[in-house]
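User: quick one, sequence for these tokens?
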């Protein structure tokens, strides 16, 4: 079982309780026009520069959030897991999407239309408080992500991102976690070239920190990766 001494909160939005325990009238409002949408791996959920039409909750699968750099390349800066909400930043700011969301694997998402979500905010003080808390926390997550790119080596970033992904893909506390991610996406997340990432994974395998099977990665020495990442 993974050591919980690693602080996932520094790198996770933790907004799963956004709509938990709201008044029945508010829940009814949010559910009236909501619908379940299916996306295949690689399919776009929303694109950078589009106008937001609602918010999404990941019911099944994983969603990657990306932003375009000044060089025209994409930077994968976050992965949403089951239960997490996305798409409300641009909606609340009344701006176009500053990022894009794409299905990392086959996904099912609950979609709540913009007008219903905004009306729910107007009628629920608790929802407003939670949104304020979530936005404040997510600002800290982005700061930590920037520090990660600025202060850590590729080796340290690779180890730390594997630890972050382990929590994203974990299904049962006692079971071995299978991290399913292709090397292009992982390299993008780490902020390095694919070739450098592949060499780093080989080093981790040689050091018996991980094993791989196809595109899947399994952490074999959690404490070892913690030391490499310098997060303890």
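Assistant:
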């Amino acid at each position: 079982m993974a050591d919980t001494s690693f602080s996932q909160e520094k790198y996770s939005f933790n907004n799963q309780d956004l709509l938990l325990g709201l008044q029945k009238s508010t829940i009814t409002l949010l559910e009236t026009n909501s619908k379940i949408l299916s996306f295949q791996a690689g399919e776009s959920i929303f694109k950078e520069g589009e106008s937001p039409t609602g918010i999404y909750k990941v019911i099944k699968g994983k969603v990657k959030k990306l932003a375009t750099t000044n060089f025209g390349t994409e930077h994968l800066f976050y992965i949403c897991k089951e239960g997490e909400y996305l798409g409300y930043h641009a909606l609340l700011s009344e701006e176009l999407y500053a990022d894009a969301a794409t299905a990392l694997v086959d996904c099912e998402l609950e979609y709540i239309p913009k007008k219903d979500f905004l009306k729910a905010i107007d009628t629920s003080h608790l929802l407003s408080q939670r949104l304020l808390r979530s936005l404040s926390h997510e600002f800290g997550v982005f700061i930590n992500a920037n520090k990660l790119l600025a202060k850590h080596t590729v080796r340290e970033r690779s180890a730390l991102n594997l630890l972050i992904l382990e929590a994203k893909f974990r299904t049962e506390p006692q079971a071995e976690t299978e991290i399913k991610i292709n090397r292009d996406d992982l390299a993008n997340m780490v902020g390095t070239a694919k070739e450098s990432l592949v060499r780093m994974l080989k080093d981790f395998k040689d050091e018996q920190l991980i094993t791989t099977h196809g595109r899947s990665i399994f952490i074999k020495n959690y404490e070892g990766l913690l030391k490499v990442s310098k997060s303890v």
